[in-house]
C-alpha cells in the first residue's frame, strides 16, 4: 500500500501552470478566430487578441484564485455571486473606458477598430468568466473524483490486507486442530484414518484455494460445514446429538468465505464433553431474499467457558472483525452464555456482497 502513496500525492498536486497554459492557449485561439471573423488572421489580429486577453485575464484570475476558493468552495454563495457580478462589472467598465485609448498609446502604429462593437464588453466578460468558472470547477471535480476513487482503492486494499491477515490466523488454527484428530486416529490405529486424511485434504483444498475469493455461495459453505462435521465424527465416536437445519431460498446467495467454519470448530472444540449423552450441537441456517442468519448452540462443561480455555474467544473475535469490515452497519453478532450452553448468532441484512458484481 505504501507504494501507491507517491502516486496519490502526485494526483493531489495537479499543476496550475498546466491548467492555465491550456486555458489561455485555448482562449487565445478561439478569440483570434472570432476577432479575425474566421478569415486568415493578420498581424493586427494577433496584437488585438493578445491585448484583449490581457485585459480580461485580471478579473478571470481574481475569480479563479480568490473568489472560487475563498467563497464558492466554502459555500458562501450569496457573497460569491455578489462579488462575481461586481468583478465583471468593474473590469468591463474599465475595459470600456480605457482599453482602446491604452491600445492607441501602446501601439501607435496600429489603427484599431472595435472588434466587438456589436457586443457590450460586460456581456463578453460575463460569458468568458462564467465559462472559465465552469472549466475550473470541472477540472477540480475531475481531480477530486480521481483522488476519491484512489482513496477507495487504497481503503479496499487496506481492508483486503486486514481480512487476509485475519484469515491467515484462522487457517493455521484449524489445521492444528485437524492434525490432532489425525494424530489421535493414528495412535489408536483406526482403520478409517485413510478416509479421514482424504476428507481433511478436501477441506484444506477448499480453505486454501476455493475460498481465496471475495465471496462464495451458501451451497459451497454448506458442503464445507458438512464435510467438517463428518471429519470431526472421526474424533468423537458415538456423538449423534447434532442437528443442522437448513432453510434456503437461494443456494447461490453469496457470503464472505470462511465466515461460519470457525463457529462450528469452536463448538466441537469447547462443547464436546465426556458424557456424550449430555453433549449437543444445534445449527440452523436461514436465508431469504437479502437476509441471512446462522445460529449455532452447543453444550458446555460445568466449568466456565472462558475459564476452561483462555483462548476460546480468539476465533469469535476474528469473526467479529471480519463482519465489521465486510458488512459494516449490515449485520449483528450476538453471543449468549449460560452455565451449560453457549450460543452464537450471526445475521446479515441487505447483503452488500450480493449486488457487488
Explain what this protein looks like in three dimensions.
It contains ten helices and seven strands. Strand 4 and strand 5 (291-299) form a beta hairpin. The protein is 61% helix and 12% strand. Mean pLDDT is 78; it is low at 1-13 and 304-311. The two termini are 24 Å apart. Strands 2-4-5-7-6 form a five-stranded mixed beta sheet, with helices on one face. The chain has 357 residues and is α+β, with helices and mostly antiparallel strands. It has helices spanning 5-12, 16-35, 43-72, 77-106, 121-187, 193-210, 218-235, 261-271, 305-308, 314-326; strands spanning 216-217, 242-248, 254-255, 281-288, 291-299, 331-337, 341-348. Helix 4 (77-106) crosses helix 5.
Short description:
With 357 residues, the chain is an alpha+beta fold. Helix content is 61%, strand content 12%. It has a five-stranded mixed β-sheet, covered by helices on one side. It has a two-stranded antiparallel ribbon with strand order 1-3.
